[in-house]
Design goal:
With 302 residues, the chain is α+β, with helices and mostly antiparallel strands. The chain contains two helices and 16 strands. It is globular.
């Protein structure tokens, strides 16, 4: 057996202790680093979530009418979000909007957090955050500005791949409302004004459509020289006296205009109560297989 000199024993013990302390120190540093990395990972995951995106302030004043028909039948209820890929925390700005209903005005968030960033709305089947065509798309190609007040109708159209969604709109205030269009909406003295928005304008094989008010087809104020009824279309407008009126849609064969509406019977009707000096949007919608309809909503001042 070989013996260590007595003078080396304390040195060996010291080296052993130093090695043990180094191991403990290294483990503590590793644990600290692991914890820091875990916290950093949590932070990165939080900021990489879609909900971590910085949006702008509420922008525009937008309402939507669900008048979408697919394959000749009314579509189902819809939800509208202000982002194209809603996550589990997102709540729709317009929820469960049924066919034939008009929403309240909402103000979607700007798409990004910088001055002037436009907003938008995206259509999904009610209760779903996943969508296939024609759902899941934005309702405006440009996006809404802060001064915009717009009513958008979800209407039918057809694409090569099948049924689609048209998005006719009525600009009520803001930079899109040009002076010429606004002049067509002058309210006759002592009357109210019905402003048409044709949701089914892109539907196939439509007959000629005419607005009927209280059993007659009024002359439009948009084209005062017309002496016979004018076919329905967006921004074809009609002055009416104050009071409650019954409105509906009558038809004529495609390509054959009406000189009057005598003997015509409208499809489904609704009522509008008119106040002098007030404008009302009248939605014209429907397809031949389901009948043509009209409903209305007041247009508030901007």
């Amino acid at each position: 057996m070989r013996w260590l000199p007595l003078g080396l024993i304390p040195l060996v013990a010291l080296v052993a202790c130093s090695h043990k302390d180094a191991q403990s120190s290294t483990k503590a540093q590793a644990d600290s680093l692991t914890g820091a990395l875990a916290r950093l990972g949590d932070t990165l995951r939080l900021h990489n979530k879609p909900s971590g995106h910085q949006y702008g302030p509420p922008t525009g004043k937008i309402r939507v009418a669900n008048l979408l028909e697919l394959n000749g039948q009314p579509g189902g209820p819809v939800d509208l979000y202000d982002r194209g890929r809603p996550d589990s925390d997102d709540v729709p700005l317009i929820k469960n909007l049924a066919f034939g209903q008009v929403s309240d005005y909402v103000s979607p968030r700007g798409a990004d957090n910088y001055a002037g960033s436009p907003s938008n709305l995206y259509v999904f089947p009610a209760g779903s955050k996943q969508a296939s065509s024609p759902y899941g798309n934005r309702i405006d190609n440009v996006g809404f500005a802060a001064t915009d007040q717009i009513t958008v109708a979800l209407g039918p159209t057809n694409f090569a791949g099948g049924a689609g969604m048209a998005l006719p709109a009525l600009e009520e205030a803001g930079q899109r409302l040009n002076a010429n269009r606004d002049s067509l909406r002058t309210i006759p003295s002592g009357q109210g004004l019905l402003v048409l928005l044709q949701a089914d304008m892109n539907a196939d094989s439509l007959p000629e459509l005419y607005l009927m008010v209280d059993g007659t087809c009024p002359l439009t104020t948009s084209f005062p020289k017309n002496t016979h009824p004018t076919g329905a279309g967006t921004d074809v407008n009609f002055g009416v006296t104050p009071g409650t009126h019954t409105i509906g849609i009558v038809t004529a064969p495609r390509g054959q205009g009406l000189l009057n509406c005598n003997g015509k019977k409208p499809g489904q009707t609704s009522t509008v109560t008119v106040t002098a000096g007030q404008r009302y949007v009248v939605f014209v919608y429907g397809v031949p297989s389901d009948g043509f309809k009209a409903t209305s909503a007041p247009i508030p001042g901007p």
